[in-house]
Specification:
single chain; 185 residues; mainly alpha; 10 helices; 0% strand; binds zinc ion
């Protein structure tokens, strides 16, 4: 059971469990790295006769899938590294990062998500250097989304959108699609 496993002291966990937890803890940063690498690979393509022309994209895709899965696993349990990284002035941090917190809630707007994915994928088919620039900028926006996601996970107890304007703490998983709260902060 997850309850039982999360009550095991971190230091007494097997080595592989610690590696998996640490990978999950840093998964967002790894994903940001893969986004940057993918953009560089498109701007500076590897010669087709180089084995890395196939190997590098395959390695990136594998890294993305594994990091994503381990990030989801990490987010469902208690993490020693997250606990030590918890800011002392969390409430102040939540105010400072209110835009990131609000951005994390945009994911609950399905229309917005579909539009965003359409831009991410569709921009790959734009021709010329201008098209490449638009594609690169579109991909780079995922970096901010990942930062928003990790900031939100860290500061969720202080997130206005999660708590709702009536202070309903149980609305964590069904936040407001349009966060108004940060506008008047
Ligand atoms: Zn963590
Ligand atoms: Zn929230």
């Amino acid at each position: 059971m997850t309850m039982a496993s999360s009550s095991v002291p971190f230091s007494s966990r097997p080595f592989t469990a610690n590696v998996i937890n640490r990978w999950g803890h840093w998964a967002a940063q790894l994903l940001i790295g893969t986004i940057c690498a993918a953009i560089m690979l498109r701007i500076f393509p590897i010669a087709p006769d180089n084995p890395m022309a196939v190997g590098a994209p395959l390695a990136l895709i594998t890294l993305v899938i594994v990091s994503w899965l381990l990030m989801r696993k990490h987010d469902r349990r208690l993490c020693e590294h997250c606990m030590t990284a918890m800011p002392l002035n969390a409430s102040e941090s939540a105010t400072r990062y209110r835009r990131r917190l609000a951005t994390a809630h945009l994911g609950s707007n399905k229309l917005l998500v579909v539009l965003y994915l359409a831009i991410l994928i569709g921009s790959a088919f734009l021709p010329g250097a201008g098209g490449l620039a638009i594609w690169a900028i579109a991909q780079a926006t995922m970096v901010y989304l990942l930062l928003s996601y990790t900031t939100h996970r860290r500061l969720q107890p202080w997130c206005r959108s999660c708590r709702g304007r009536g202070g309903e703490d149980d609305r964590v998983d069904s936040p407001d699609p349009v966060p108004h709260g940060f506008q008047d902060a």
